[in-house]
Amino acid sequence: MRDEDILTGAVLEESCLTLEELASACSVSTEWVVRHVEEGVLSGPGTTVTEWRFSSRDLWRVRHIHALERDFDAEPELAALVADLLEELETLRARLRRAGLA
Amino acid sequence: MDFKDYYSTLGVARDAAAGDIKKAFRRLARKYHPDVSKEKNAEARMKEVNEAYTVLSDPEKRAAYDQLGQGYQPGQDFRPPPDWDTGFEFSERGYSPGEAADFSDFFTELFGRAGRGGARGPERGFHARGGDHHAKVLLDLDDAFRGATRQITLRVPRLDDRGHIVVDTRTLNVQIPNGVREGQMIRLAGQGAPGMGEGKPGDLLLEVHFRPHSRFRVDGRDLYMTLRVAPWEAALGAVIPVSLPDGGEIKMRIPEGAQSGRRLRVRGKGIPSDPPGDLLLDIQVVVPPASSARARELYETMARDLAFDPRAEE
Question: Rounded to an integer, what distance in angstroms lies between the CA atom of residue B94 and that of residue A67?
């Protein structure tokens, strides 16, 4: 394998995605994201929309909330509740793994 | 290419009403939800269910599929006649190009053009950025220490000369930097779906996951392991060599009087990053078996001379 064939990626650190990048990464419109931040379903860090920065955790949440709304016609608040529970489930599973129980 | 029976995938009759199809889809979407399901191959089954519902929930696609599928059996070799879709206009159900790329060749051959401006193909002068693709990459813990190169295979739809969608398999060699953590995303700019017109291509987003390790467990940047010690090592204290995932070794001092369940922290010996994680060692005292006359004698001497009651403080 030649060195020039190898692609090097950038690790997404905390709070690094702009509104446009987040929307594009999740195949949703920026309006969708803004609406969900305004409704409190997503947290909007930063004061103005242009200052908003999102983390890879937000990206995970948007993908899940969008799929739940699409597949079950879920209200945004209900989809957010399910996403909260899935996050909690993932945290507890991580604790089980850490304890060597999973 | 095998013919796919979308009705049997959703478990509905061919004349099922739209409401019943939706109900069947939701039941299966819950059953095979990749984060929750305990079913085998839940993720693969969910993709099949999504694909079937994408076709059967859209009246145009369903009508075209019904017309085309007459006389075909599931698994039977299938070729759509040329221009079979004349007169149909397919719409999307909100799947990202990355998700739709997971659908079968059968689907892509029939409906792949829908996302590209309908059956007529993209309009002249229309530009749009390509969609982002998502993929998971499974790493060994050692990779987080040393970095690694991984081959990632993607299914990428593209338009051929006749304006039909074909799915190419693309293999990328990706350098994974050291210090990555479970759940982190790695972005490869420009490696997603191609753009339309002069639009830029999308990005490829890789989600990092680790294979379970036989000795170490990972939580964020920290590593956990169980350190098994002999009763005399715990009682008297000891220095024990511990090998690390990067191939290095540390000498670990076990304090005198250590008990099972005690946790020792070694700063900076977890996953390398800024700041690096810690290594946490959970001490577990392992009792040797009394399997020889000499071993029995030693235990009996201890029982007699130590006057030890492990339940005294209860």
Answer: 9
**What is the per-residue pLDDT across A58-86, written as a single tens digit (0 to 9) for each?**
888 999 999 999 889 999 999 999 999 99
Task: Identify any residues that bridge with B138 across adjacent strands, giving them in sequence order.
Answer: B209
What is the model's pLDDT at position B82? Answer: 64
* Chain A residue with the nearest C-alpha to that of B179: A11
| Best residue in A3, A27, A63 for a mutation probing chain B (most B CBs within 10 Å) | A27
Residue B313 placed within a domain: no
Q: Report the pLDDT averaged over residues A17-37.
A: 88
Cα B162 to chain center, whole Å?
A: 36
Percent of chain A with pLDDT over 70: 91
Of B132, B173, B205, the CB nearest to A7: B173
What is the side-by-side order of every strand in the sheet holding B165-176?
A6-8, B165-176, B148-159
A99 touching B (Cβ < 8 Å): yes
Q: What's the CA angle centered on B228, arms B227 and B231, to 5 degrees?
A: 130
pLDDT of residue B314: 66
Give the CATH number of domain A16-98; options: 1.25.40.10, 2.120.10.30, 1.10.1660.10, 3.40.50.300.
1.10.1660.10
Minimum Cα–Cα distance from A74: chain B residue: B26
Structural domain span for residue B174:
125-211
Q: Which residues of chain B have pLDDT under 50?
A: 114-123
- Which chain B residues touch A26 with a CB distance below 8 Å? 96, 132
Residue B146 sits in a domain whose CATH number is 2.60.260.20
Look at the pTM and tell me if it is higher than 0.80.
no
* Average pLDDT over every residue of A33-40: 89
| CA–CA dist B190, B202 (Å, integer) | 5
Residue of A14, A26, A56, A95 to mutate, interface with B, max B Cβ within 10 Å: A56
Please state, in angstroms and rounded to a whole number, the distance separating the CA atoms of residues B48 and B208.
Answer: 24
How many structural domains compose chain B? 3
Q: Does A1 touch chain B (CB under 8 A)?
A: yes
CB neighbours (10 Å) of residue A43? 13
**Both B133 and B75 in a single domain?**
no
The CA-based angle B193-B46-B152, given to 5 degrees, is 40
Distance CA B281, CA B233 (A): 15
Distance of CA A76 to the CA centre of its chain: 14
For residue B120, the model assigns a pLDDT of 38
